[in-house]
Amino acid sequence: MFHSVAAKYDLMNDVLSGGMHRLWKRFTIELSGVRTGNRVLDIAGGTGDLAAKFSKLVGPTGQVVLADINGSMLKVGRDRLLDKGVAGNIEFVQADAEKLPFPDNHFDCVTIAFGLRNVTHKEDAIRSMLRVLKPGGRLLVLEFSSIAAPLRKAYDWYSFNVLPRIGKWVTGDAESYRYLAESIRMHPDQETLKSMMVEAGFDRVTYHNMTSGIVALHRGIKP
Amino acid sequence: MLLAGLLASVEHGLNRVLRLDSTALARLAHLEGKVIAVDCTSPALQLFILPSDEGLLLASQWAAEADCTLRAPASSLLHLALSRNKTAILHSPEVALEGDSAVLMDLAAVLQDLELDWEYELSRWIGPVATQLISGHLRSRTRWYQQGFASLNQNLAEYLSEESRTLVGQQEAQARFRELDKAKIDLERLEARFERLNRSLDPSDNA
After folding, report:
1. In the predicted model, is pLDDT for residue A41 greater than 80?
2. Which of B54, B62, B65, B67 best probes binding to A when mutated, by most A CB atoms within 10 angstroms?
3. What is the ipTM of this complex?
């Protein structure tokens, strides 16, 4: 489905979230603790929002890998970053999050923003991320989550009535946005994802709810 | 989220201003990779500043260790931001500086030396001809106001000292200060002579 929406992905994110996705990603950068010389892997990096920021933070001595399983999204991300002059310390890799093609203990930080929801075997993906992280490295999972109960009705109405319509107007594809609403409901809630990360072997796992739990940022450290 | 939104807006505005200066971004590029923490003690608030060749990144929290931490109450921070003599404020007891202070001083120097080319920015919006007209008009107005204030200042001083005699004139005041200085020195000299005389008359000293 991402092939059909890749070109207008950023525009749709702005329209559907009212620009909030920029603040969610900003918070992710703040908690990443990425410094000059670090090696960062951005899985399901899409159009490269996070990768562009990481590229600046790690500097010429660091390295950023933008990985996405979807070739169209990766191409849009690569073109966009090159147009912005982000190059030199960034690589683009088409890869499956469940079987990351990188050596063990390789990255200081791994991020996956709005991507884990679309991974079939989430436990395998989390274990794979743990493997490529250096001891002391951080995994950050930014994902839609379970919203606070009083807002659930309004949120459901927006997700199943407004969201697909806007999707149809802007990208001409309502189905992809119906899938988005359904996949958000299928995704593990805050506590479940936290326990999945702990079971995979992550230490000091915490999460931060954002915008009343529409989105949650989970962070775990590799022991 | 509210604070993050506010910081994002401030950051956007600040970076636009920095881009108006021809040297600011190049100077900030030397500080790339550095993290400056500003810890406001009252009210309790933390701000992290990360300079780069694209401007400043502001964050309410940063997971990595800061290179330099400035800890002070809001009043001192405001004073520090507005004052040209930053060293005096940095040495005051309520201000604490940890880590590499050169990073903070370099950032402060960049912000203090800003010379904004507002005419260039204006010309992008309204064109070069209109900008020239507006800037010419603004410059002549500014000159007129400066001359007006200087003249008013001079006339007022002259009126108060020469005509109404409410205040003492500058020359007169300086002459009086000179006399006072001379009297003070004479007094000190006399005091020293008394001291010497006192010592010479003291029998215990002679023994």
Report:
1. yes
2. B62
3. 0.77
A84 touches chain B (CB under 8 A): no
Q: Is the dihedral of CA B122, B22, B6, A163 positive or negative?
A: positive
> What is chain B's mean pLDDT, rounded?
87
Q: Is the peptide bond before B43 cis (omega within 30 degrees of 0)?
A: yes
How do strand A133-144 and strand A107-113 relate by DSSP bridges? parallel
CATH 3.40.50.150 fits domain A2-147+189-221: yes
Domain spans in chain A, listed from the N-terminal domain onward:
2-147+189-221
The residue of chain A with its CA nearest to that of B9 is A23
Q: How far apart are the C-alpha atoms of A68 and A46, rounded to whole Å? A: 7
Closest chain B residue to A219, measured at CA: B63
Neighbour count for residue B42 (Cβ, 10 Å): 11
- The C-alpha atoms of residue A158 and residue A175 are separated, in whole angstroms, by 15
Which of A21, A57, A86 is best to mutate for the B interface (most B CBs within 10 A)? A57
pLDDT value of position A7: 55
pTM above 0.90, yes or no: no
